[in-house]
Amino acid sequence: MSTYAPPVDDMAFLLTRVLDFDRAMTALPGFEEVNAELAVSVLEEAGKFAAGVLEPLNRPGDEEGCTLADGRVTTPKGVAEAYRAFAEAGWCGLSGDPEYGGQGLPRVLQILLDEMISSANLSFGLFPGLTRGAVEAIGHHAGADLKAAYLPKMISGEWTGAMALTEASAGTDLGLLSTRAVPNGDGSYAITGTKIFISSGDHDFGGNIIHLVLARLPDAPRGVKGISLFLAPKFLVAADGGLGARNAMSVGALEHKMGIHAQPTCVMNYEGATGWLVGEPGRGLNAMFTMMNAERLFVGIQGLGIAEAANQKAVAYARERLQGNGPDGTPGPVPIIAHPDVRKMLLSGRAFADAARALAVWTALQMDMAAHHPDAAVRAGADGLVALMTPVVKAAFTDFGFETAVASQQVLGGHGYIREWGMEQFVRDARIAQIYEGTNGVQAMDLVGRKLGMEGGTLPARFFALIKADLDAAAPVAGAALVTPVAEALARLERATARLAAHGGAVEAGAAATDYLRLFALVAFGWMWVRMSAAALALGADAPPALRRKPKIARFFVERMLPATLALDAALAHGAPALMALEAETF
Amino acid sequence: MSTYAPPVDDMAFLLTRVLDFDRAMTALPGFEEVNAELAVSVLEEAGKFAAGVLEPLNRPGDEEGCTLADGRVTTPKGVAEAYRAFAEAGWCGLSGDPEYGGQGLPRVLQILLDEMISSANLSFGLFPGLTRGAVEAIGHHAGADLKAAYLPKMISGEWTGAMALTEASAGTDLGLLSTRAVPNGDGSYAITGTKIFISSGDHDFGGNIIHLVLARLPDAPRGVKGISLFLAPKFLVAADGGLGARNAMSVGALEHKMGIHAQPTCVMNYEGATGWLVGEPGRGLNAMFTMMNAERLFVGIQGLGIAEAANQKAVAYARERLQGNGPDGTPGPVPIIAHPDVRKMLLSGRAFADAARALAVWTALQMDMAAHHPDAAVRAGADGLVALMTPVVKAAFTDFGFETAVASQQVLGGHGYIREWGMEQFVRDARIAQIYEGTNGVQAMDLVGRKLGMEGGTLPARFFALIKADLDAAAPVAGAALVTPVAEALARLERATARLAAHGGAVEAGAAATDYLRLFALVAFGWMWVRMSAAALALGADAPPALRRKPKIARFFVERMLPATLALDAALAHGAPALMALEAETF
């Protein structure tokens, strides 16, 4: 089987033709030197690393898995070396703060790098991904001393990060957690408790591992208001900034998982571990959510990454595998890509991945504007759009990503079920992304329960107006056959939004959440297909084949995938009663 | 976690209240003594075996897997003993021909037994399941000598069966297979070739293993018309009917699979193996399809079985797991079954499983009528309906079954991704059912390409008329809120059917196939929900809680699941062009 080909050309198309990256960067102080040409050259290098170093470790890492012996975690052969090479090449700090040694490149590049890493090796990507999340939380909430001691080595990749939130009885509901932090009297705290599902909780890369741990101070109130965030390193930091004494934490076990076997997911025991408060006491969840939002976008990108890789493999197989006569009567055996139903599976994945990548770049641009634009109003506006899109990207990308992995596996028939082809690993690895960093149900609740109400309830209308303006602008080029169905789907979404606003309450919101989020995502994908089609058509007959295919994929999307909005709209119109009628005992 | 509870009460409801099993049996010669009371007592015993013996082996068998050493397959601890106990209890021959020692009970009981086995241990179920398929092929196509020598011991379960069809380059397209059979001059043939994906190809249960092998005779024409079916036992049968010399076949390897790890899926080498022709030369595919149709229904039932088991575990977890405040404001932590989105996941699985079971029983009743009704016209009519439903049951049950496994896993959050809870095994095991015995895409092509055209193209209309008559009859009791949406969905299906008839051709058929099959299945499920609701409502207020819930689940189905028919109808109306526009090179 062919290996992964980084879609840098498609990324370049998005940056130069669809989303006008150069103009966006010009408006951001500090990014004047950043443009698409630079971005593409960086992405080409990143693609080489992903395809050349990380992808070859993906299947062996799944087979070998991680082991725990004598309290030490061993990652699969080659992973530690690859991580060191990744860090030395500077990829850990790509979008990191230059004040602490980062390269300070925009979020747009980060998410495209993340996509390629996720395509090549999802398990691997969690090491730098979680470190970046920890860096964000420390950078936003910790004091100057902690920042100075930890950020440079985390941004360089010398040290890694881990998020220690979940406990056996506290998952979605972190208010139930029981890990305790007691002041030592010297400004530090002694942390005691057991956390589960801790990605990158330990490894054999050398360096330090910086745990961000949610815990309760003595006499803290019950529930989420009693939770604080602490930084607890695996090794205490010595006076010279290097590694000091071993901190009082240990790996209780490695979780035995469905997938991401090259990722050591740990049960962590904190046994009076020394830690320092990050942010205000009782504001731990707030500090953690700084980390979580960036992580949620990252997890969404994992869904996209797996979809891209799985679709590529399925396409390669479908071109080579000869079975049956052609549907047009061509005597067989013909490549199975000739069969309409195989094409349908392949096009579904392609239509998702291309639209998702565009939407990810658009969202990352909003993040860059929210962080760096000189105009506070522009920053606030962009920030709202990022808040709105975060649960959509996390949940929809991982749901469609999983579905794409399953459909791509199906293209290979029995060979897709056999481990050696690697397709079933995509399915197993993709599955976690629908669950961690807040299940997709939690994301949907976040969208309907919190995000729709932002800006006094006007945020969704502001976003929809933006889509409408783009549809109107693109219509002369993209054509009514494409634009009208998307506009109609948007009208369905607006109706569903209005219904939720009119019949509020947590029960109706919860009953609508998942279907509403999917409706929202389909409209957003349609919007991006209109923009991509218009951009490709504007290039005329000289466009390369990869761009001339865009309007054809767009047509597939509106004709065969977008109709799902009809079903979601109709289902949502019925509201909660059918969900709530059954007594818990009679399920 | 609680273990599997066989849904015998629900089965009894279907037999006594919904599908009038007793009246159906009365019309069938030889089944006069069979009634629901007998059936339920048999099913209760079967449920005890499934829950008590097979389910406890399911997780350990997945962890241990099968091994191949020195050419011998070892199944996981306990499996061989369980198989022997299963056979000794008479379960292998439940629906087997009494002429060869079977109990001759109706197909209805067989599929309900199959469901419980599949819920408890899908890997295990393949041993008796494939044996039964082999028995059907031998029973219908082999000569009297072969039948006498093999059927009694296969029906008793002393010997097992395997289907050897697929080769590395011949999967869906069996016409490409290259295994050869050369006459030995004594009525037997020497079979040489390598087959892959052979379930139950070898094991350590003792006894014999009867391989049905597709191969080509010398000078056979190319393609499917050159294929013949041969019976090749692992051990030649001695003069006394017992085990003789070892036949020239060996296990080349065990496939390394995503799931069904307790099932030894073999690469089989036939090295001049001695075999005997089953049926006419060149008619091998025909003989094999006798086996395949029964197997396809069995595989569909596997999807139902996994869905039932996964839903049960998810419900149990959702009742016990405490997280968050109630959506109605109840201070938390509350059981997560209080949350609407969790209910939605649970209800989706329940709405599928109940409807699928009803549809399976209905289909099995048609099979019993097709096999045993004294009136040839009734037999032919029932046979047509079975032919129509076979691809629907196989593909839709396994697709919805997989989706139910995934949704049930999601209910457990991170715990669902961890092996110890068993939910991820359901997902991995369920996945194979969408692939083997003809991928679900192949099933959909069979439905649109062959089945819709049966009886001169009148078969679908005959089936739809049957549904309409039932809807009309049930409407006064079930109510318009339930019946009208199902009738509207049926109208969509009729339109889609008419479009396919008008714009025929393999390209349009292939482009429609998967969506059409799902539309068909949703209408059939709706039909069963109307019948089940009407039956439950007819019992009045005295109905037990498990039956009083039926109309509520029916409401969920029509309000939240049936709207998918809108999307499928709209997508189908666009036809093939959007699928065929892209050149193979530019995917």
Automatic annotation (TrEMBL), chains A, B:
The family line of this record is: Belongs to the acyl-CoA dehydrogenase family.
Signal peptide per UniProt: none
Q: Which organism is it from?
A: Xanthobacter dioxanivorans
A Gene Ontology MF term for this entry? flavin adenine dinucleotide binding
Q: Which InterPro entries match?
A: Acyl-CoA_dh-like_C_dom, Acyl-CoA_Oxase/DH_mid-dom, Acyl-CoA_Oxase/DH_mid-dom_sf, AcylCo_DH-like_C, AcylCo_DH/oxidase_C, AcylCoA_DH/ox_N, AcylCoA_DH/ox_N_sf, AcylCoA_DH/oxidase_NM_dom_sf
Identify the residues that the record assigns to the Acyl-CoA oxidase/dehydrogenase middle domain, covering every copy: 162-270
User: What is the protein's name according to its record?
Assistant: Acyl-CoA dehydrogenase
**Per its UniProt entry, which superkingdom is the organism in?**
Bacteria
- All copies of the Acetyl-CoA dehydrogenase-like C-terminal domain together span 463-582
Using the record's annotation, list all stretches that form the Acyl-CoA dehydrogenase/oxidase N-terminal domain: 76-158
Name the keywords, alphabetized.
Answer: FAD, Flavoprotein, Oxidoreductase
Show where the Acyl-CoA dehydrogenase/oxidase C-terminal domain sits. Answer: 282-447
Q: Which cofactor does the UniProt annotation name?
A: FAD
**What is the organism lineage in this UniProt record?**
Bacteria, Pseudomonadati, Pseudomonadota, Alphaproteobacteria, Hyphomicrobiales
